[in-house]
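hey
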């Protein structure tokens, strides 16, 4: 059985508790398919105030996360297990997408670093980081929510996490197409009817209809992802 271990380094562990204690990611944990370890960087901070950030060389607004606490923390974690990737969440990273989630879901151990303020000292990136991921072209106040997005997208792909083994394969983006519209009961609501084909029981017609709907949606909303 494939199971995954993800360590997340953060200065705001509270921000990560909510997203991981519900729904599918919680179930992954309960089933022993995904273990999450939240590591509080402050514990590696310097001096009586457990300092983790400092002014940037060269001047300019905003603090930078210091080398020493991060290096100590990462080195200690690395001494305990072999990480397949050390990921730094940053708006200047490679934009996250479904194929990246698919690839990461096949790994065994991941370490994710959440940045804050102006980011982390470049030397930590040079020394330890193997992958830099952005969740989109906007700036969040920290890497935690971005890390939660990556863990959610990756965690739900681990075999056995979703009840329906095939449902992750039919998600939007898995085949460069957006998902088709979906309906559930009742078959008519406020004069709006579920398309007849979905009630027909004819599987090949249903597949064909869904494919065309996917194609249409993708053409109108996301022509950039069409092959
Ligand atoms: N930290 C701040 N903004 C971010 C983004 N867009 N993606 C990943 N990490 C971030």
């Amino acid at each position: 059985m494939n199971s995954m271990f993800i360590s997340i380094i953060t200065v705001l562990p509270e921000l990560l508790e909510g997203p991981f204690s519900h729904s599918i990611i919680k179930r992954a944990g309960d089933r022993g398919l995904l273990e999450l370890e939240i590591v509080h960087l402050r514990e590696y901070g310097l001096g009586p105030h457990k300092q983790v950030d400092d002014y940037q060389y060269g001047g300019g607004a905003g603090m930078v996360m210091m080398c020493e606490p991060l290096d100590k923390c990462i080195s200690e974690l690395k001494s305990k297990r072999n990480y397949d990737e050390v990921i730094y969440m940053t708006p200047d990273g490679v934009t996250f997408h479904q194929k990246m989630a698919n690839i990461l879901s096949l790994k065994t151990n991941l370490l994710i670093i959440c940045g804050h303020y102006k980011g982390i000292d470049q030397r930590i990136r040079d020394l330890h980081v193997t992958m830099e991921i952005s969740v989109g072209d906007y700036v969040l106040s920290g890497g935690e929510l971005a890390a939660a997005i990556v863990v959610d997208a990756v965690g739900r792909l681990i075999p056995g996490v979703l009840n329906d083994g095939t449902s992750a394969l039919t998600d939007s983006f898995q085949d460069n197409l957006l998902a088709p519209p979906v309906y559930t009961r009742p078959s008519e609501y406020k004069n709006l009817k579920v398309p007849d084909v979905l009630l027909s029981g004819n599987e090949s017609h249903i597949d064909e209809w869904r494919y065309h709907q996917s194609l249409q949606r993708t053409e109108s909303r996301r022509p950039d992802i069409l092959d």
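The chain has a mean pLDDT of 95. The helical segments are 14-20, 23-30, 67-80, 98-104, 122-127, 144-155, 196-199, 203-221.
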